[in-house]
Amino acid sequence: MRKTRVLIIDDSAIVRRMLSNALQHEPDIEVVGLASDPFVARDLILQHKPDVLTLDIEMPRMDGLTFLRQLMVHRPLPVIIVSSVTQEGSAASFEALSSGAVDVIAKPGGPYSVGDIADKLKYRIRAVRHARGVRFSRMRAQVGPLHAPVSLSHGNGLVLMGASTGGTRAIEALLTRLPADGPPILIVQHMPPHFTRVFAQRLDSVCSMNVVEADDGQRLQRGTAYIARGDFHLQVVSQGGVLQTALNDGPPIH
User: 93, CA 20 to 30 Å: which among 6, 78, 152, 195?
Assistant: First the structure.
């Protein structure tokens, strides 16, 4: 199999070198370029055609979020944010995910601590190489609006949705087109802990239905979507004939 081609974008020369050193000895990963800002990155993308980008947010001349939004319009690619401003649950983290990033990794602090996230970054690169969520915005523009089945408003039972890395925009596009009075919807989205509450709040603000982060023992109600909490398994159990949620933190499932 061809190696996964990675372009590293960060304004710190130390961080660029440390990320490159962490990846260059992997047999299935190739670092094809190092960029100090989005303008250099733009030329390297055209030259080397990388499979995955790592992207910092705070950079000179153009910030990472602005570059990310432009990239998703003109040349969608899987992008992993690696930044000190994307701590768990931060507004910048969710803004990056909403703008098309497939994952977010927070720098622990200080350029020399980048080595601490090396294993996490390798895992993410391998996981997102074939991610398709980043192409959703272009696909949606081509196929036009999505029409929800009319029968959903009168249906019973449950609606279950699952999305992997890069699925946040697809879920939002789908839920905003569904009616307010449909059956309960349970959603599992690949997302780090603390992000799921912010994700639920974002969806609740733009959807006709209610959207909440699932809690233990919540009664399932029509017109409500339940986002599985990060790092927890979401189950549906029957208590006295009433369906409700149950959370457990057992071993993660691939």
Answer: 6
